[in-house]
């Protein structure tokens, strides 16, 4: 099977089984999504969704957040991983948005990565989810699933994974393919105990083929 054929199978499978895949973070606008994604680094979406309502109640927009103090914001996110850094990042992000972007959340990756707490993955999430730009955010799930399926070959970094995926995924499907791979990794292709018996991608999965060969 060629890589092109493998991608075609995977895309067709998800189009039929997860046509409406989307982020599990709860948000109402770009500001809220940006806050949620910054908080989600090395933290579950479930925990973030439990935390953000109190933040948005006290800081309903980026202008309000830009006026926050560390001592006021920290108690609202102390249950999140790395709360000290994320508190500083959120305040710094909001202040830069107000000062450098006229209070509007940037809509391009180069602009977004200038913000405190925003790396390439976060910028790709914002631009793909909000604006449906063909940007592929690579987290641990996307990295793992892509490698196991054989969609990527010897990709050592998230950027290499991103670049390889973008070679074969049609531009108009990139924004949803990001969610397909994340959700598959979150619920089926688990890191330690993948649920291969429940996976409809077994026919093209290199990882599963290896398991069958070794009798595991």
TrEMBL record:
Q: Needs which cofactor? A: [4Fe-4S] cluster
How is the co-factor bound, per the entry?
Binds 1 [4Fe-4S] cluster.
Keywords attached to this entry? 4Fe-4S, DNA damage, DNA repair, DNA-binding, Endonuclease, Glycosidase, Hydrolase, Iron, Iron-sulfur, Lyase, Metal-binding, Nuclease
Which InterPro entries does the entry link to? DNA_glycosylase, Endonuclease3_FeS-loop_motif, Endouclease-III_FeS-bd_BS, HhH-GPD_domain, HhH_base_excis_C, HhH_motif, Nth
Q: Which residues cross the membrane?
A: none
Q: Domain of life, per the record?
A: Bacteria
Q: Which reaction does it catalyse?
A: 2'-deoxyribonucleotide-(2'-deoxyribose 5'-phosphate)-2'-deoxyribonucleotide-DNA = a 3'-end 2'-deoxyribonucleotide-(2,3-dehydro-2,3-deoxyribose 5'-phosphate)-DNA + a 5'-end 5'-phospho-2'-deoxyribonucleoside-DNA + H(+)
Residues of the HhH-GPD domain: 39-187
Q: Which GO terms describe its molecular function?
A: 4 iron, 4 sulfur cluster binding; class I DNA-(apurinic or apyrimidinic site) endonuclease activity; DNA binding; DNA N-glycosylase activity; metal ion binding
Class of enzymatic activity (EC top level): lyase
Kindly list the biological process annotations in GO that this record carries: base-excision repair, AP site formation
SUPFAM superfamilies the UniProt entry points to? DNA-glycosylase
EC numbers for this chain: 4.2.99.18
**Record has Iron as a keyword:** yes
Q: Which residues bind [4Fe-4S] cluster?
A: 189, 196, 199, 205
Per the entry, what this protein does is: DNA repair enzyme that has both DNA N-glycosylase activity and AP-lyase activity. The DNA N-glycosylase activity releases various damaged pyrimidines from DNA by cleaving the N-glycosidic bond, leaving an AP (apurinic/apyrimidinic) site. The AP-lyase activity cleaves the phosphodiester bond 3' to the AP site by a beta-elimination, leaving a 3'-terminal unsaturated sugar and a product with a terminal 5'-phosphate.
Listed name of the protein: Endonuclease III
Q: Which organism is it from?
A: Chitinophaga lutea
